Records
---
Amino acid sequence: MSAPDDTAWEIVIGLEVHCQLATAEKLFCGCPNRFGQPPNRDTCPICLGLPGVLPVLNRQAVDFALAVGAALGCTAHPRSVFARKHYFYPDLPKGYQITQYDRPLLTGGAVPVEAEDGAVRAVPLTRIHLEEDAGKSTHDAADATLVDLNRAGVPLIEIVGEPALRSAEEAGDYLRALHAIVRYLGVSDGNMEEGSFRCDANVSVRRRGQTSLGTRTEIKNLNTFKGVQRALAYEAARHVDLLEAGQAVVQETRLWDDAAGRTRGMRGKEEAHDYRYFPEPDLPPVELSEVELRAAAEGLPELPAARRARFVEALELSPYDAGVLTAERALADYFEAALAAHPGNAKGVCNWITSELLARVPATEIATGPVAPGDLGRLVALIDDDTISGRIAKQVFDHMLAGEGTPDAIIEARGLRQVTDTAAIEAACRTIIAEHPDQLAQFREGKTRVKGFFVGQVMKATRGKANPQQVNALLDRLLAEDATDP
Amino acid sequence: MSSPLCAAREALERGERSSVELTRACLARIEATDARLSAWLHVDADGALAQAAAVDARRARGERLGPLAGVPVGLKDIFLTRDLPTTCGSRILEGYRPPYDATVVARLRAAGAVILGKQNMDAFAMGSSNENSAFGAAHNPWDLERTPGGSSGGSAAAVAAGHCFGALGTDTGGSIRQPASFCGVVGLKPTYGRVSRFGVIAFASSLDQPGPIARTVRDAAALFEACAGPDPHDATSAEVPLPVGLEAMPRDADLAGVRLGVPAEYFGEGLAPGVAAATQAALDQLRALGAELVDVHLPHARYGVAAYYLVATAEASSNLARFDGVRYGLRRAGADLAAMYGATRDAGFGLEVKRRIMLGTYALSAGYYDAYYRKASQARTLVRRDFDAALDTVDAIVTPVSPTTAFRLGERVDDPLSMYLADVFTIGCNLAGLPGLSVPCGFDEARLPVGLQLIGRAFDEATLLRIAASYEDATGWCGQRPALGEEAP
C-alpha cells in the first residue's frame, strides 16, 4: 500500500468525540457516576429502564456542557430539546437512547489546534449535544454476552467536528487539544482507556483542488491518540489505493484493528438503521437562563493555549516545555505552585518537574503525590543558592519522594548541607594528595586525567557535600604547588 | 345521596366501622361477584387485611392518620406496586413484581388507603372495551354481556359493583372517562402534569394521565386530592399548587354565573339517540341550576382522532421497546438475539398492541415522519388552540363522553377503526392537556348508563368538580346501582 501522494490527493477527516462528563450523578437518575465498580452495582430502576420510570435531567451535566461550549466559542441555545434514538440492543435498557437531535444545546464554535510549527488553526465544530451513555456488553469465551449497566445513563457530550481536518497528524493534534480542554475545565477525566473519551472518524480523500467530498468511511474502535493517527493514515492510504486502481470506495463503517494495524469492514451487511428520532415526551425542553449562560462564560479557567503562550512569553520557557507542562491542568497548576516558592528560575523548576518528577510520578497523580509543589520549588532554590549541589539534590529528592518531609528538614537531618568553607575543603584536598603519592607522581608525569581521581576522592571523603567548583579550583592550585615544591 | 368513600371515612373516624370490617366487606363483595365481572387481575386479600389491621391499630393508639386512612381502594394494573404483581394486562409482564411503588401508590399508602389489589385493563391501556386484556375482558355490571369500557374497564366495573370505594385509572384518550360513563360512575382525567406518571407504565407519554374513578364526585375529589401534586421524579409534573378540601363542596349549590360552552361539533351525526336524549336533558338541568349555556366552536375537533392515533401510537412504539425479554418479564428463546427479541415480543404482546407498535413505528420512520408524526403534532396544536379559545369565554365545555352506551363484548373486535372512532369526544382533552370529567347523566332505553363530560381550563379541576357536584346533587343519578344481587358495603 502506498502512502497518499500529498501532491495529488487531499485527505478530509471529521471527528465525532464522545466525552463522558464527570458529574457526581448520572444524567437522568441519582446513581453515582463512577468507573470501576462491580457490574450493575451503580444502577436503579431508572437507568435499568424498568417499566414506569421517568428521566429527570441532571443540571450539572448542562453546566458542564455549557462550560465546554464557552471554551470553544459555541452558540448556546436558550431552548434545546431531547430526542429518543431507537435501536434494540441488550445494553440499551429502554430500547432508545435519550439524546439531542434537531435542537442541540450548542452549535458552531471551533477547536484551536496548534501544529508542531506553532501555527494555530481553528478547526470548526458543527455542534455539541448532551446524551446518555449506553451500558457495556462483554462477549465471553463461552459465547455468552454479559451486560453491565453501570455506564447506562452516564452523561456524555458528543462533539461533532466539521470535515475540516486535512491529515492524520492534524486529527491527532485536534484530539489532544480537545482532550486538554475538557480536562482543564474539570468536566471530564478524559480517560481513554476507561472509555470516557472516545472517538469515531469519518475519512474521505479527493483530488487536490476538487471541492466536492469523496465517498467516506466511518472508523470505529479508536481508543488511543496514536491509534487514531495510525488508523486515519491507513484508511486514507487505502482510499487512495482504491481510487488509483480505478475502484470505488464503499461507504461503510469499519473497525480499526490496532494489533494488525489495519481497518476492516464490519462483518456482515450492516443494517441500514432507521433510528426514528422524535422529541422525548418525558422531558421538557432545556431552557437556559441568562444567569446560566453568563456563569458558563465567566467561570472559564485559563485554557491550555493561553497558558502555553503565557509560559513562553512571560516565563521564557521553550514552546516544547510549555506544551508539556500545559498538557494537563494539574501539571500546569503544580508547576505554577512550585514556581511561586522560587519565582526566580522558571526553567530550573520546569526541568526538575519534567525530567525528575515526571520520571517518578505520573502526571495525573502529581497533585496528590508525595512531593508538594512548594517543596519542589524550595529544592531548586536550595540548589541555586549553593546550599546543596545538583547531585545532592537528587538524593534529597529521593527522600522527599519517600515522604521524609521538606528539603530543608531532610538536609538538616542528614547533614547534606554543601561544604563551602575553603579551609575545610583545602584540608581535605591536602589529605587526599598526601595519601596518594603514586597518583600524584602520575599527574606530575603529565597524566592530567588523574585530577579526576583526586576530585572523586575528595568528594567521597566529604560525602559529596564539598562544593565541586571549589574542589576543582583548589586541586588545580594544590597539584600545581606540589609540582614545584617537593 | 351520600358519597360512600367520604361516608366510610367519617364512619372510620367516628369509630363506627373498622377498616378491617370495610376491607372484609369489599373482599366478600369481590368474592361474590367477580367471577362474573373479571374486574380484578390480582386481589391481595391478606395484604389488604394486614394494612387495614395496621390502620385500625394506629387509630386505636390515637395516632394522626392520613386522609384516606382505612379506606379500601383498587388500582388499575398499570400502576407499579412494590412486591405486588403488575402486568399492565399483558402476558409480557405476567408474574412481574416491581421493586418500587408508583408515586401515586406511595401517596395513597401515605394517606392510609388500603390497597385491595390490581384491576383488569386493556393490555398497555390500549383499547376501549377491555377486550385487549391478555387475561380476558372485564364485564359491565349493568349488563354482563357488555363491555365496561376501556382501558380502565376493570376499575370502573369494580367501583360500580361496590368492590371498592374508589380506584385509580389512567386516561390517554378517554380510558378513565369512557369506562366511567359505561359503568355509571364518576371519572376524572386531571390536567396533564397534575398527577405524577412516575411508576405508571407508559402508553403515550405526552397524553397519559392518572386519575380517580369513584361513585360520586366528592369521592373522586377526595382520591384526586390524595394523589395529585408535583413530583420531583416526573419532569412533566407541574409545580401548580393543588386546591385542598375539594370534597367539602357545599351541597345543592346552584350554578348561577357559571358559563358552559356547548360545541355543535360534539352533537352531530353518530350520536346514539339514548345518549343524545340524556345529554340534552343534562343540559336542560344545568340551565335550570342557573348555568348559562353558550355555543362554542371547536373547528379542528374532526382532526382529533387521526392526530391522536398517530401521536399515541408513535409514543407507544417507543415506550414498549423496553419489553425485550432481556431484563424482566417474558423471554422466549431464539437462535440469536434478534430471534429472541422477535419470539418474546410475538408471544408477549397481543394483537392490538402489535397493531399500534406497527402504526407508530411507521409514523416515525424516515421519510414518513413529516407526513405523519409532525403533521399530527401540528394538528394537535390546532386542537389545543380551539379549546383555549373556547375556554376564554366559558368556565367549562359540556359534551357527551361517548357516542354510544356500553356495547356488546365481541361486537367491535374485528373493526378496530370503529373502536378508534368511538374515542372522538374524549381524545380532545388529552391532545390539549386539559382536565375532563365524566359524571353519570341518566340511562338509555336499554337502561345502560350515560355519562356527561365536562372539560375545563388547565389546572382548574376544582371548577369541574364543583359543577359536577352541583349537577349530581340535583339529579341523584349517582345513587343508582347495578343489580348484581348483593348489597354494596
---
Amino acid sequence: MTMKTEVSRRAVLAGTAAGTAALAVPGVLRAQTKTVKIGILQPVTGALAYDGQQGQIGAEAAIKAINDAGGIKSLGGAKLEMVFGDARSTPEGGTAEVERMQAEGVVGIVGGFASPICLAASQAAARYDLPYIVDVGVADSIVTRGLKNTFRFGPGFGMVTKTALANLAKLNDEAGKPAKTVVLVHEDGLFGAGLAKLMQAELPKLGFEILDTIAHPTPARDMSNIALQIRSKNPDLVIPSSYYGEFALLARTMQQQRIKPKGIYAVLNGAASNYRFVKEFNEAAQFVMDCNHWHDPRKPVAEALRKQVEASGKFWTYNIPLNYSCVGLLADAIEKAGSTDKAKVTEALAASTYAGHIMPYGPTKFVDGQNQGGAPVNTQVQGNDIKVIFPSDFADAKPVFPRPA
Amino acid sequence: MIRAYGPALALIALAALVPFAVSANTVLNFVVFALIIALAAQGWNLLGGLAGQFSFGHAAFFGTGAYAAAILQTRYGVNAWAAFACGIALAGAVGWIIGFLSFRSGLRGSYFALVTLAFAEVFRILANASSVTGGAAGTLVKLDVRPENFQFASRGAFVWIAVALVGFVLLMTIAISRSRFGAWLTAVRENEDAARALGVDTLSVKLKAITLSAAITGAAGALYVQYYLYLDAGIAYGAWISVEALIAPIVGGIGTAFGPVLGAVALHVFGEVAKAVAGGIPGIDLVLYGLLLVATIAFAPDGLMGLLKRLARRKAQETR
C-alpha cells in the first residue's frame, strides 16, 4: 500500500506540473519550454511485437531528424522528447499507456498500429482532447466516430480495397485478361474477413469467377490443407489477405507443392511487401504482388531512411515510413500552432497541408480526420527487390503478369 | 457478524476512498482494470473455488455480458444501465445452459474444464463470424460522456462502480459460505457422491453455482465494455480472460472470499511495478512478472490468503 501512495504522489506531482505548464501564459511558455513531449504508442510485446518495433524505428528516426534540423522553430527550437508506451498488443494496454502519456504531459500521440488498439487509445485520448494520429489502423470506424482529436494519415480499409480492385482489373486488362478464376484466402480477423466480404461482392462485377473462399485463423501452423484446396480448384489467381507468418507459410507450401497460379495478388498482406520475406523465402516470393502502404521512392529522404534502416541490420517495412511521416505531421502541426496547447495543435492538424512526409500522398488534407490523399500502392517482388508497379506515375518497374512458368 | 463481515466492509470503505486520495488518472485507470479482473475472478471462484468445478472457459460468460451490454446499446438503443443489467442476466442464462448441458451428462473435473473451454472457443468463432456482433470488426460503443449513458468524465466514478460491484460480490461470497447453500457447495466440492447420498441435490446446487458465477463474470464483461467502449471476439471470448479469471484466485487463495480480489490486485500491482522497474528493453517486465508469479506459487501454494494465515499463526505461536 505504501508503494501505491508513493507512485500516486509522484504522478500527481507530474500531473500538476504538466497542468501548470499548459495553463501558463504562452509568452512565458515560449521562453521556458526546451522540450516538447510527444507520445509514441506501439505494441512492442505480444502478438504484434514485430510491427510495433518497426513502427518505433520510424518514429524514433523522425524525432531524431526533426531535432537535428533545429527542433520546433516557432517554439524557439524546442526539441521533441519521446514518451514511449508499449500497447502490449491489446486495447486496454494501449489505453493504460495513453493515461500515462497524458499524465506526463504529451502534446499529442502517434501510433497504435492495429485497429482495436487505435480505436481504444484514440477514445481514451479524446477524453483529454489530446490529438491522436493513427499510424496504420485501417478500420473505417476509426474516423467515422466523430472524434475531433483523431486523425488518420494513411488510407482506410475502403480506400485500400477500392484501389486494389481497380488496379487488379487494370493489371488483368493490360495483360490481355489471362485471369478469370480466383481463390480467396484470408485470415478470419478484422481485415482478412472484411476484405474477403468486399471481394466476394466486387470481383464478380469485374468479370472474375470466385472458385472458393478459404478462411484460416491467426496464428495458423500448417497451410498444407489450404494449399491442397488451391491445387484442386486450380485458379488463375490467388488473393491472400493474411499476416506475415501465415502468408510466408502459404507461399512456401505452394512452392513446395509446385502450385503455380498465374499470379498471387495480395491485399494489405503482412508479408508480400516485406523485405524479410523477400530475403528469407526469395524463391517463394517471386512475382507476388501486393496492394499496401508504401513509401514514395521518388523522395530522397525516404530512400535515405531506407538505406539507414537496412544498414542497421533491420528490414524495411511500411510501418517505418508511415510512422516517420506521422511524427513529422504532428511536429508540423505543433510548429504551425506555435504552441503546445492541445486545442491549437488539434486545430492545426485539422487544417494541415503537410507535404514534408515520405509517403506518396501529396500535401495532407483532413476531412473528418481522414487524410484525403492517403492511398495504397501496388508492389511486386522482383528478384531481390520490392518494386512499385502502380500507380504508373512513380512506378519503378513494369508488372510481371502472368508470372513466367 | 462483525467478525465475518468486518474486514470486508473495512476493505470496501478503504477502496472507496481511493478516488479521494489519488487524482492521477493513470492510477485510477489501473485500479479500474484490476477490479474488472477481480470481479471476473470472483465469479470463477464461486464455481471453481467454492463448488470445486474448475472452468477453463469463463470467457464465455465475460464475453456474453460484454457483447449483450454493447449490442443492446448500439443496435437496439437500450439505455446503457438497462443493457448492463441485461448483460448480467444473459451471462447468467448462458451459465445455466452450459451447466445444464454438462452437469446433466455428469461431466466432472477435467472433462468439465475441457467442455467450458470448448464453449468459449465456439462463442469466439461465432462472434467473429456473425454480423450481429460486428464480426471481426467488433462493436464500438459511442463515446458520449453522460451519466445516463453509464459514461463518466472522471475515472473516479468508474472506480466507485467497480468497488461497489466487487464489494457486493465479496459480501455475497461471505454470506454464501456461511449459509446452508455454502455448506452444500462445500459438500459437492469435497465429495459429490457422498453429498448426494446425504440428500444434497447436487445438480441443482451446481446449476445455481454456475448461474451465479456466470452472472458475476458477465458483470465484469459488461463493465469492461462500458469502460473501454470497444469489443471484438478476441477480447470478449479470448482465452486471456479465462486465464486471468482463473489465475487470480489461484494466486490469491482458491475458495476464500478475499482470494480473487487480493490475487487480481496483487498480480496487476506486480505487473505495474515490474514495468516501472524494468524500463528500457521491451518485454523485460513480462519476464520479471513471470518470475514473481513462479515465486508466489512456489512459496505460497495456498495463495496469498494461505500465506497470510500461516504468518498470522506463526506470530500467534511466537507471542504465546
